[in-house]
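Reply to dn_fold:

You asked what the input looked like. This is it:
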Amino acid sequence: EGYEYDESNYAKEIVAESSGVYHEIVPTAEQFVSDLPELIYALDEPVAGPGLFPQYRVSKLARENVKVVLGGQGGDEIFGGYARYLVGYLEQALKGAIFETNEEGRYLVTLDSIIDQLPMLKQYRPLLSHFLSRGLFDNMDERYFHLIDRTHDLEHTLSPDFLSTFDRRQIFEDFQKVFNHPDTLSYINKMTHFDQKTLLPALLQVEDRVSMMVSLESRVPLLDTRMLIL
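and this is what came back:
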């Protein structure tokens, strides 16, 4: 998605601290084209997201050196690592601040006033602005649904006739059943619960199929029961 998402520097720091051996690969478009038929066959069913290709390439490299690896799947869903969790948390905080500083219909606390005081948030300004513009004061389930909804992307790839068969109300109701299932008022807990029940299983399926393609055993220690009950 661009070099701004390159996390290789973090990998290098960890290797330096652990006295490990650093390996790096940069998958190419040509490799993607050549690998795609084999990946489709191995996955056996559609999956969301393009991560399976680089994951396959990393697994292939790992298998040249080891037979078993420890993966980090589940870390984002358990420890709140996705940027959208931060956006959701900030959105809740901003909502509370706006309510508390409402004077005669004029809000003293705004998104700009908060970001100006916290430079680290500037990179999230577009995402925050988009999120907040779609309903700062909506219910939690409506706000998170707006945040993760990607159906507008389908307008560029699917025909209008096919799109007309989508029942958006039913889709949202199905989403609500999972999102509102945990008996908690915590927005973060609801978000992570939803992703653990929906997104994570798909990621684990990719993890399993891609690693098995190269006879590599991939274990996910962060999803050990003893970790989950902490």
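Residues 40 and 46 are 8 Å apart (CA to CA).
Hope that clears it up.
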